[in-house]
Amino acid sequence: xxxxxxxxxxxxxxxxxxxxxxxxxxxxxxxxxxxxxxxxxxxxxxxxxxxxxxxxxxxxxxxxxxxxxxxxxxxxxxxxxxxxxxxxxxxxxxxxxxxxxxxxxxxxxxxxxxxxxxxxxxxxxxxxxxxxxxxxxxxxxxxxxxxxxxxxxxxxxxxxxxxxxxxxxxxxxx
Amino acid sequence: xxxxxxxxxxxxxxxxxxxxxxxxxxxxxxxxxxxxxxxxxxxxxxxxxxxxxxxxxxxxxxxxxxxxxxxxxxxxxxxxxxxxxxxxxxxxxxxxxxxxx
Lengths: 174, 101
Known about the structure:
- The structure holds 2 protein chains of 2 kinds.
- In chain A, 74% of the residues lie in helices and 0% in strands.
- By secondary structure, chain A is mainly alpha-helical.
- The termini of chain A are far apart.
- The relative contact order of chain A is 0.07.
- The model of chain A is unreliable at 170-174 (pLDDT under 50).
- By secondary structure, chain B is mainly α.
- The mean pLDDT of chain B is 87.
- Chains A and B meet through helix 1, helix 2, helix 3, helix 4 and helix 5 of A and helix 1, helix 2 and helix 3 of B.
């Protein structure tokens, strides 16, 4: 009963945040809508017993990623009017039709085949930091190390992009 | 009423479609990028729900890896957007038309 109440309230909040993100004219409102969605998903993670994931969701997504987004939005200017006119003919009706088709398709498929396997583990998959760490550092150690490599590559690439001056004036048509 | 995993899957599907709509309908590179993040979050929700139903921890491990990849992607993607903005003075993807056939 509590879970259903939470699902209704925060499900509506998540969908509303997503809609605000897509429809808002100002990118700052888009970022705030996305933040609302991410907080709602963190609530769902707590409800489903994924406590560590919920904490990481708040810290990484709602904290770091959204701060980065807001920083870039402020950096490239929020006062300029974002025109939403569509240059491609038929893009909007075709896109909306395909989206409706896709949404109906996955919802219909979900009626029959969301989860076809029986429960494989024993007990509940409670996602405390202890359980997550145990799985991460024993069974999934190599993928974990690879994410470290990925993060180093991303950091180096970002620094290279930020330092790259190139010959901006020479070839840019703008 | 009990919230079955199907409810979470349906919510994830709705959020995924909303993110897809953002990609298809908006022309601001930042908003499109945020839409990608929403789609990743929707899939994370389905991972957690499925892992809970199957009673395995790997669903949450997958979410952790998706989050790491998404964080790296955000850093690099935003750096690219800023670089494009510095060169062109706009964040609209319509302005990047060099490869027009």
